[in-house]
């Protein structure tokens, strides 16, 4: 993702604003929301909504109340309230669209645990925040080594410092419950700061780290997807996809979230289509369904023992035969209903270069002239010449 003034230059470096994800428009960042209400004025007498959306590291967002009535706009760095101390983040959304986002995420405007914005960040706040961010990568290398030394079945995926540098949050993934009490003691002794361990799922880990999917685009979970719904293999079966784990799994190792995107359309189309394991009975014999085209509403049947000969029926015809079989009646054969498998489609190709011939620029082939070898007819000398 990039804003209008950003692009990729030489060696992957950003062009345009050259802020590499921290520009004022916030369009280069993860989970960016376009403020489509920014150009609309409020009705007379209406006060602006006093909540703002603040983004932290790797797309982590929270909503804070602007109790001090600060003049905030997208891109401002602010100091926000935390459980202990304060945190530093960037304003990503302000105005009426924040009310829509909070309603969508079921966040109440009146709550005892409402967090507030203290002030716009000063240069001292930004310096402490930047120095804390610089410590995260070396700490992650050491933390992973400590977990390996203690033989814990866990993976530390990321570390995030609080804006004032008073606390470090360690994000980890694990298949089972992990007893990390000894690990916290080692961390506190080594890093000299308050430690918080936070377990995240594999989908959340992929969302935080980001990456490129098999479609060639950035991962949905790191760009716009915020709710992770469960994905089951039945979604692949409904869409007639091959149950190949290597193709259906994403970078998180779980089933791809995009399997749910078109599932509702397939379920609507499958409402009146017989199941694939359906069998129809005719006087000629029993036929089994071999293939279903969901959106063209075609089904192919083959008699038992004649698996190579397929007969194409429409969904309505198949339902008619099944309804007759339910009444203990049999049709004569599928050939009465079947349509031709090969449909002749006349394609009228047009000459893309007009009426001219494709070989109009080819010159006539010239005949190669044979070179006369003057010595061809000369007789070769017999014997070797004697030297004087």
Task: Chart the SSEs and their pairings.
Blueprint (H helix, E strand, L loop, with lengths): L6 E2 L5 E2 L35 E5 L5 E5 L11 E5 L4 E9 L1 H9 L12 E4 L2 H12 L1 H14 L5 E7 L5 E7 L7 H11 L2 E6 L2 H8 L10 H4 L9 H6 L6 H4 L14 H7 L9 E3 L4 E8 L4 E6 L7 E4 H12 L62
Parallel strand pairs: 9-10
Antiparallel strand pairs: 1-2, 3-4, 3-6, 5-6, 5-7, 8-9, 11-12, 12-13, 13-14
Helix pairs in contact: 3-4
* Overall mean confidence score, pLDDT: 82
β-strand number: 14
**Derived structural class:** alpha+beta
Strand line-up of the largest beta sheet = 4-3-6-5-7
Instruction: Please compute the radius of gyration using only Cα atoms.
Output: 35 Å
State the shape.
elongated
In which range does the helix fraction lie?
10-25%
Percent of residues in beta strands? 15-25%
Uncertain runs: none
Tally of helical segments: 10
- Helix-strand topology string: EEEEEEHEHHEEHEHHHHHEEEEH
Alpha-carbon distance between the two ends: 92 Å
* Biggest pleated-sheet summary: 5 strands, antiparallel
